[in-house]
TrEMBL record:
Occurrences of domain Proteasome activator PA28 C-terminal (ranges): 101-243
Keyword Signal: no
Gene Ontology biological-process annotations: regulation of G1/S transition of mitotic cell cycle; regulation of proteasomal protein catabolic process
One function term, GO molecular function aspect: endopeptidase activator activity
Species in which this protein is naturally found: Patiria miniata
Keywords: Proteasome
Protein name: Proteasome activator complex subunit 3
Organism domain of life: Eukaryota
GO-annotated cellular components: cytoplasm; nucleoplasm; proteasome activator complex
Database matches in Gene3D superfamilies: Proteasome activator pa28, C-terminal domain, Proteasome activator pa28, N-terminal domain
UniProt xrefs under PANTHER family: LD45860P (PTHR10660:SF2), PROTEASOME REGULATOR PA28 (PTHR10660)
Pfam (any one): PA28_N
Family stated for the protein in its record: Belongs to the PA28 family.
Residue span, Proteasome activator PA28 N-terminal domain: 7-63
Amino acid sequence: MAGTDLKKVEDFKNRLLEEAEKLVHTVFPQKIVELNELHQSETLSRSRMPEVHSKLNIPIPEPLVVINSEMPERKKRKVDEDGEVNSVQGSRVLALPDGLAPCNKHLVDIINILKPKVCLMIDHINTLKMWIQLLIPRIEDGNNFGVSIQEDTLAELRQVESETGAYLDQISRYFITRAKLISKVAKYPHVEDYRRSVSEIDEKEFLNLRLTCAELRNTYLSLYDLIMKNKEKIKKPRNSNAETLY
């Protein structure tokens, strides 16, 4: 059983090494071209900025006319299950006419295109990290210049992985922030600044998504360039110099 497990581990290691080679030579150039075409396409064109704005389905109600000069009652009365009346603090929130405040469809479509590409890049980087880790030789004195190149490349991959993961956080923060602003619009429909803030955050997210696409392309390109320039040292960090001693 132990021999079978060792063979499976060795097979997995060989498949990973082959996959990493394919990533660098084939997949990375494809992704560079693909992301560059997407960045320059109509989908992410700056000319689409006016289309990004979504119309809020929250109407502006007629202003209330207070006839009685007395201050309106600030407390609502609530009857609990036992029939007792309790005074509770609160303010009126307008019901949405359609029962739903929809997301910005234009931005959701772009996110649905970019998000899988971000997740895929994280997988690619993880594979390359494991590839280089497996190529690092055992620790010895001297002749460690190639090993230092491997370690520097690993550090760059870890940094890129962290930055790429931040793009996913950016998407979730956008939805959370927009939801809070929509809630403000529903609660204070007469305040135009809240409505304008929704349009502003949509524009900002469009530009962020456009920048994300460019950063993904640039990251693939920089990693491809880094690995290809140092591929010899990454794959064979130590060369035998025994023959030069004679």
